[in-house]
Design brief:
Number of strands: 9
Structural class: alpha+beta
Number of helices: 12
Strand order of the largest sheet: 5-6-4-7
Distance between the termini: 66 Å
Length: 328
């Protein structure tokens, strides 16, 4: 796991001093405790247990988690269970601030329109890496609508590329394409390799038609293509600024891009949002929700600020003009 991801998880439960705070209230006359940040605390403790510097015995917490899986944010623990959790956290907090300070010094906040790309573990040679780079260049060229995709380097200490996006439309096209591709890929890998898909296909046949493996494969691919095209058409309608491209051209871009992304997912490459994603994006790749009204509002505000900046520039005398007046 990337240091940035670890920091995100740990930051949810530590205070300004870098120690974990268990938010709780006693109930039933102090016979039990309602832990309000239980799910976040368990997620952080699971990660911290994997760190080499943490030599504490995690089994008391594991026994609590086994009885109370973190399915909900809050959880009610008995007094004994809460004591087990609290005792472990107190011991961990003795060392934790140093680790938290290291994370803070190493991990820098990512730009919101960054895309993180995890390289496939199957890449074992320079030629394999070169081929990946060529494929990524093709993908970014397809999705370039109103701004470039720029290589920022590697995430610290990992084999993750960090790519930043300049234009809003390019960014939206890419993440919408990624969302479609991920869902498409999962459908292809799970549903269409299942017995249910075969039964659904057989159910669609007429009485005089016989099942054929080759026809089933053709049906499967055709259905998936139609699914991608329909999703791409819907996605293209949500992109307000097309930078002069017609709706049909934009649809073509997204469809071609999604097909390339599906191939890349098949190669084992992973695509993830920024560690600090935009406020108008919720969820992860494969289950994204985009607030398009918020996007338009932010862009309008930025355009307004740019307009003010230009107006100010025109109103203020240039340095060379002032010099010329002084000399006169």
């Amino acid at each position: 796991m990337r240091l940035g991801e670890i920091k995100q998880i740990v930051d949810k439960v530590v205070d300004e001093n870098g120690v974990i705070v268990i938010s709780s209230e006693s109930i039933y006359g102090d016979q039990a405790f309602n832990v309000k940040n239980y799910a976040d605390a368990v997620a952080a403790l699971n990660i911290l247990d994997e760190q080499d510097w943490n030599e504490l015995d995690y089994s008391p917490v594991e026994s609590v988690v086994k009885k109370h899986p973190p399915d909900n944010e809050e959880s009610q623990l008995t007094q004994e269970e809460f004591t087990q959790l609290n005792t472990y956290v107190s011991a961990l907090n003795a060392k934790l601030p140093y680790f938290v300070s290291i994370l803070a010094s190493i991990v820098k906040e990512q730009d919101e329109k960054v895309i993180n790309i995890k390289l496939s573990e199957d890449i074992k040679s320079l030629s394999g890496l070169s081929n990946l780079n060529k494929r990524l260049e093709t993908i970014f060229k397809i999705f370039k609508i109103d701004g470039e995709f720029e290589f920022n380097g590697f995430d610290k200490g990992t084999d993750w590329y960090v790519i930043s996006t300049v234009g809003y439309s390019s960014y939206l096209c890419l993440i919408l394409g990624l969302d479609i591709a991920k869902r498409f890929f999962e459908t292809k890998e799970l549903y269409f390799k299942s017995k249910k898909a075969e039964l659904d296909y057989k159910a669609s046949l007429e009485k005089n038609e016989k099942y054929s493996e080759s026809l089933f494969l053709a049906y499967r691919e055709k259905r998936l293509e139609l699914e991608v095209e329909e999703d791409a058409i819907e996605a293209s309608k949500k992109i307000a600024d097309t930078n002069g491209k017609t709706p049909e051209e934009l649809q073509t871009h997204i469809i071609l891009g999604v097909k390339e992304l599906v191939k890349e997912l098949g190669e084992g490459t992973e695509f993830h949002l920024s560690l600090n994603p935009p406020e108008y994006v919720e969820g992860t790749i494969g289950s994204l929700r985009v607030d398009y009204k918020k996007v338009q509002q932010i862009r309008a505000e930025e355009d307004k600020m740019v307009g003010k900046g230009k107006a100010k520039e025109l109103m203020e005398p240039k340095e060379e003009d002032l010099t010329e007046k002084i000399e006169k």
